[in-house]
Structure formats: structure tokens, C-alpha cells
Write a structure and sequence with these properties.
Elements: H1 13-38, E1 84-90, E2 94-95, E3 102-109, E4 115-118, E5 124-130, E6 133-137, E7 149-152, E8 158-159, E9 163-164, E10 185-193, E11 196-197, E12 201-205
Parallel strand pairs: 2-12
Antiparallel strand pairs: 1-3, 3-8, 3-9, 4-7, 5-6, 5-10, 10-11, 10-12
Biased composition (Low complexity): 49-64
Transmembrane segments: 21-39
Keywords: Membrane, Transmembrane, Transmembrane helix
Length: 206
Amino acid sequence: MSTIRNPVGPQSPQVYWRRRLVLGLGLLAVIIVIVLIVVRPGAADGKDPGASTAPAASESSSPKPSDEPVVDAGPETPCRPQSVKIEAIADKTAYAAGVIPQLSLQLTNIGASPCTVNAGTTQQVFEVGSGEEAYWLSTDCQTEPVDAPVVLEPNNPLSTAPLAWDRTRSSPCDNSNTAVPAGDATYYFVVKLGELESEPVYFRLL
């Protein structure tokens, strides 16, 4: 009886050992191939190892356009001339002898948003005249004019402090002023602010 430990036969024991070793290695290779075919890596969890997973699409970081219009206006925005109504204001329509007219200007924002206008004396011109002749200008002999930026809210009129007109002709500072004619004389009053100009208002000096 031959055994694995002590093989017998016409060949030498080394030959039988080599044959059994080759046969054993062959059987082992066949078993490994069968196992790899039946049980593939990733087959247990239902994933195909050859398939790649596409990365999830990420949202773009660029800003999306807004559906609402942007209004570029605020208190720091200069008023457009067409958005401001300017008016000349006289406190009376007729002045008795010796009564001093009080004159002012009024500004109204007729736009939709607040805006800023320079209402200072650097921009103001008050003019009183009769017929085609200007008798008095606030800028004649003016000293230290100043800027005065103010915010105009929509439909909220703002008026300057009244300016007293002494019923004289204006002139350079080195000349004396003379009284204008009275006795039921009619005068116009207009105001200017930068490129804005009011309609004239009329009053009488009795």
C-alpha cells in the first residue's frame, strides 16, 4: 500500500511528490477562479465596481438676478431740476407805507424719492423789480454766502427764513440805496436757486 508520506512505484519518490504538488496547485487555482466568478467584489451590496458615481451638481455661487427693480435714490442723491418745484413767497399782496415786505422761497420735492439740494445763499438770488427793470437783487453787496444742503422729502414743502426787503434799490456796497417808488406801484418778485427759477408773484407798495 502506498501512502502520501511514503510513495512507492517504479519512479523515484521525488517524482511522485512533484506530480502531487503540481496537481494540488492546479486544483487550488481552479477553486480560486470559481470563487472569484461566483463571489465578485461589490456583488454583495449590489454595486458595480466598474461603475463610477457622478458627483452631485453643486449650486452656483454667482448671484441670481433680482426680480425687483433697484431704485438708486436716497437722501444723498442730488435732486434733479425737474423733480423740484420752486416758489417765490411774499407775506402780503399789498403793503402800506412803512411796512417792510417779508420775502422767502419754498421748495417742494415732486419726485418719488428723497433727495438733497443746496439751498444756501451761494445758490439763492432774490429779485424784485417792476416792468422790465430789476430794482433789487439779494446778491448785491452780499457778504459771506454759505452752502446749506437740505434733504427734500417727497411732497413736503420747505421754506427759507423770510428776508426783509427795505423797499430800496440794491447797489454795490460803496453806494447808498435809494427808496423805490410807492403810491400803489406794482412789483414782481422771483427767486432763483442754481438753475431753478420760480414764476413771479406780484405785490403793491401803497
